[in-house]
Amino acid sequence: MPYWSLYLQGQGFSYLQIATLMATIQLTKIVAPSVWGWLGDRSGQRVRLVRFGAITGSLFFAGVFLEPGFWGLLLVMLAFTFFWNAILPLYEVITLRTLGKRKEKYGKVRLWGSVGFIGAVGLIGGLLEWVPIQSLPWLLMPVFAGIAVSAFLVPSEKGERKPLAPKGSLKAIVTHPSVVAFFLMNFLLQVSHGAYYTFFSIHLEQHGYGKLAIGLLWSLGVIAEIGLFLVMHRVSRRFTVRQIAIGALILTMIRWVLIAELTAVLPILLFAQLLHAASYGALHAVSVQYIQGFFGKHHHGQGQALYSGLTFGAGGALGAWLSGFLVDGFSTSAAFWGSAVAMAIATLITWRKLQPPPEEPAEA
Fold first, then answer.
1. Is the pLDDT of residue 38 over 90?
2. Contact 325/333 with Cβ under 8 angstroms?
3. How far does CA 113 lie from the centroid of its chain?
4. Is 164 part of a structural domain of the chain?
5. Is 42 exposed, middle or buried (0-12, 13-18, 19+ CB in 10 A)?
6. How many domains does the chain have?
7. Sign of torsion, CA 222 146 316 121?
8. Which residues contact 216 (CB under 8 A, 6 or more apart)?
9. What average pLDDT is seen over the chain?
10. DSSP 134
């Protein structure tokens, strides 16, 4: 993510084309998690599906080397991300099933995803100081190969099928005003992140930052996110989930304004990246509690799929696309101002409509 927009820029694509291509990464999240989650539940063969997704996704990604032009690359990325976005949700279920009653250890396992991200952006950022950005796909292929190999090191499951959950009143849950407000909040949150995931690296490069510095700045945000997760239990004891959500939304709005106007001032930019703890960490942790509280155990999976599809998928794709228009018509700074406006609207909706989730998970 930190370098792909720079690679697309190096290939000669316009800002709007870059935004459209980056949007496909989020677009397939609308359907892929639900499709692959359903297949995993029905077959019980999640490990095999992960292996299939890792190999097939890597093969489709190799289409990048054909340099197929805009429309060809759009198809390559749609196909690649459809399989790629299947891997993480399936691995989440595999990990939780493997841990069994030791679910408190999940955070320690998931932590390695953040460590891997930090290591990858640092290493690849350093390499891109020595080799041209056009070499990025060649740097990524060994990573994809490693993921495919590691998937075969995970023991296969027994193939038990998950019993169908009772139908219940999913419609009543989804149409509840607080649930609608919750999804609107997260949809706008991901709309606001569209400029960040699509143009943050280009924005930094325009302000004179090198590839390694760009990677380190991305990593700083993830480090802040890890730090927040480590102390989130203490924050949750002092504030309600609604208070945390509103506070995090305001901090996210401030973050986008700082990036829009004061990127050249390094101490302020570092502070803005530390606010990733609020932009992603706090709001994601709160959202997990809301989904569990509103959807209960019988509809938890469907709630997670809606959360992923409507927010990260639809919101992220729309945000990336809209940011392309703002960058193409004005500047990268204008795109981050657009993100701040989205956060102002989200804060207002959350303040007026969002209520705390039930203390006990719903049984509907």
1. no
2. no
3. 12
4. no
5. exposed
6. 1
7. positive
8. 121, 122, 125
9. 81
10. G
User: Which of 236, 269, 240, 265 has its CA nearest to residue 255?
Assistant: 269
Q: Is residue 360 part of a domain?
A: no
Across 38-42, average pLDDT: 73
Type of residue numbered 144: F
Strand, coil or helix: what is 358?
coil
Q: Which domain holds residue 284?
A: 4-152+170-353
DSSP 162: P
In this model, does residue 363 exceed pLDDT 50?
A: no
Question: 210-247, pLDDT tens digit by residue?
Answer: 888 888 898 888 888 888 777 777 777 788 777 888 88
Is 300 within the bounds of a domain? yes
Question: Cα–Cα distance between 38 and 41 in angstroms, integer?
Answer: 5
Q: What is the pLDDT of residue 328?
A: 86
Kindly indicate the confidence band of residue 344, based on its pLDDT and cuts at 50, 70 and 90. very high
Q: Which CATH number covers residue 286?
A: 1.20.1250.20
- Checking if the pLDDT of 81 tops 50, the result is yes
CA 278, 279, 281, 287 torsion-angle sign: positive
Cβ atoms 33, 302 nearer than 8 A: no
Measured in degrees and rounded to the nearest 5, phi and psi for residue 164 equal -70, 135
* Cβ neighbour number for residue 293 with a 10 Å cutoff: 19
How far is the first Cα of the chain from the last one, in angstroms, to the nearest whole number? 38
212 CB contacts (<8 Å, ≥6 apart)?
Answer: 122, 125, 126, 128, 129
- Count the neighbouring beta carbons within 10 Å of the beta carbon of residue 263: 22
Q: At what angle do helices 241-262 and 211-238 cross, to 10 degrees?
A: 160
> Residues 6 or more apart from 296 whose CB is under 8 A from it?
361, 362, 363, 364
How far is it, in rounded angstroms, from Cα 11 to Cα 294? 46
Q: Is 314 among the domain residues? A: yes
Token digits of residue 268: 């302020």
The whole-angstrom separation of Cα 93 and Cα 33 is 12
Give the ranges where 100-240 is alpha helix by DSSP (H): 106-127, 136-151, 170-174, 177-206, 211-238
